Amino acid sequence: MTIKKLNERIIDLRESKDLTQTELAKRLSIDKSAMNKIESGTRKVSADELSKLASIFDVTTDYLLGKNNTPKWANNNDTNDLKKFLEDNDGTFTYGGDDLTEDEKQKLKIAMTQIFWDRHKHD
Question: How far is CA 16 from CA 46, 57, 72, 106, in A?
C-alpha cells in the first residue's frame, strides 16, 4: 500500500469537496499562488495551515501527513476509538518478551490501523 504525500492528499480532499484552489486558499488565508505551490509540492505547509486543513476537511493531521490511511467512510468515533486503543498501551510493546524498537512500534501501529479499517469496511 502506498501512502500518499501531503500535497496529493490536499488535492484529493479539495477535489472531493468541489473546491477550487482559490476557494481553499481563501479559507487558509493565503493567496492562490501559495496554494498552487503547496499542491505542486514546492512549498511547505505551516503547522497553522496544517491544522486549518484538517479542520476544513474534517480529517486528522496524521491523515494529511500520511501517518495513517484512515478511510473516507470512517467517522470521528472510529478514529478516536482506535487512537485511544493505541495510546492506552503507553508505548510499551513487546514480541516474544523482547521490547520493540521505536521503528518497530510505529510499523506495528500502522499495521494495526490497516487491519482495523479492513475489518470495519465490511460492517
Answer: 23, 9, 10, 29
Query: In this structure, are residues 74 and 13 in contact, taking their beta carbons and an 8 Å threshold?
Result: no
Q: What is the pLDDT of residues 35-78, one digit of tens each?
A: 999 999 999 999 999 999 988 988 888 888 877 666 555 666 65
Q: The whole model's pTM is what? A: 0.57
Cβ(33)–Cβ(39) under 8 Å? Answer: no
Residue 47 φ/ψ, nearest 5 degrees: -60, -40
Measure the CA–CA gap between 27 and 48, rounded to whole angstroms. Answer: 12
Q: Please state, in angstroms and rounded to a whole number, the distance separating the CA atoms of residues 64 and 94.
A: 29
The b/e string for 59-73 (b: 16+ C-beta within 10 A; e otherwise) is bbeebbeeebbbeee
- What cell does 97 get? 518478551
First-residue to last-residue Cα distance in the chain = 22
Cα 97 to the center of its chain, rounded Å? 32
